[in-house]
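STRUCTURE:
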């Protein structure tokens, strides 16, 4: 007797996101502590941060060994069980970090307004000091965001505000729906490849991330061929497979309105072929990060379109 897919079975199936939001690991807590101690060298108002944190959360002060505000903050970072409390602390801290950053930049602007000959201003002590502080604050903020990714945590700090990645439009409207569609026995290979792409991205392995994103797209397209019993030749390019799929009716009339559809859908694979297949050379690594992010999002959009087209072909809407 076949197993019946009941309502509760269908609706209790939860697709696992590629990011964690609730459990903050010890490794990240330790890394954040190092960042906070580094920030202490750059006029960050930890007394104000700590008082604001206690007031907003309605908490009592920690009393032990005359600890200063920074030590009390790092105690929360290391030992607080509530992820919500810890995230609020990070949010408040980097609000004031960003404010300090802006204040330092404004100080430089004020110095520029002073009647100081240019050749003297270039060596002006305050300018040199503030520029060094600004640069270090930027580096530490970037490090925090990298630590979030490295630990698989779905958060980033942007302009002094902690944001949840699943609240971003791209993640909510493209990445999560893509994960939901490939979380299917037929597309399990693509699911594994797509998750590997995110894993590599978090680890800073951007070329590998691009490669896995492209493989996930290829897997979905070839799986649809197999499910529909369409003939395909292994040596066919992705572009040719897309053209042939259209001839088999996969995209209905879409191709008439999007003449570049084969190139558009195949662009992730082209990125892999042109970028990930070669070394970085003198190319800055930060460019590869943005390219990897684009490739993953492009792959997700293309996978969504493929599977939705396949489902519509199987069960045409009236």
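SEQUENCE:
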């Amino acid at each position: 007797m076949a197993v019946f897919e009941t309502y509760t079975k269908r609706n209790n199936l939860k697709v696992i996101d590629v990011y964690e939001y609730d459990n903050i690991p010890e490794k990240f807590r330790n890394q954040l502590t190092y960042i906070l101690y580094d920030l202490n060298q750059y006029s960050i108002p930890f007394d104000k941060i700590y008082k604001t944190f206690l007031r907003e959360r309605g908490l009592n002060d920690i009393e032990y060994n005359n600890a200063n505000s920074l030590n009390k903050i790092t105690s929360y970072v290391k030992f607080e069980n509530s992820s919500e409390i810890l995230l609020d602390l990070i949010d408040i801290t980097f609000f004031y970090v960003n404010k300090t950053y802006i204040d330092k930049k404004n100080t430089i602007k004020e110095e520029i307004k002073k009647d100081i000959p240019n050749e003297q201003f270039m060596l002006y002590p305050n300018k040199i000091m503030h520029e060094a502080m600004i640069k270090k604050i930027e580096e530490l903020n970037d490090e925090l965001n990298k630590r979030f990714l490295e630990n698989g945590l779905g958060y980033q700090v942007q302009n002094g505000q902690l944001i949840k990645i699943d609240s971003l439009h791209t993640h909510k409207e493209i990445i999560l729906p893509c994960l939901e569609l490939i979380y299917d026995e037929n597309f399990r290979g693509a699911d594994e490849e797509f998750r590997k792409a995110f894993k590599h991205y978090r680890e800073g392995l951007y070329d590998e991330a691009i490669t896995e994103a492209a493989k996930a797209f290829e897997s979905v397209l070839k799986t649809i061929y197999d499910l529909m019993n369409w003939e395909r030749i292994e040596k066919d390019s992705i572009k040719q497979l897309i053209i042939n799929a259209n001839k088999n009716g996969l995209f209905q009339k879409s191709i008439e309105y999007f003449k570049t559809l084969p190139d558009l859908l195949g662009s992730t694979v082209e990125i892999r072929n042109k970028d990930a297949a070669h070394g970085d050379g003198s190319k800055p690594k930060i460019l590869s990060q943005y390219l990897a992010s684009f490739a993953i999002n492009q792959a997700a959009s293309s996978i969504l379109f493929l599977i939705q087209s396949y489902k519509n072909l199987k069960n045409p809407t009236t």
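REMARK: The chain has two domains: 26-165, 168-314.
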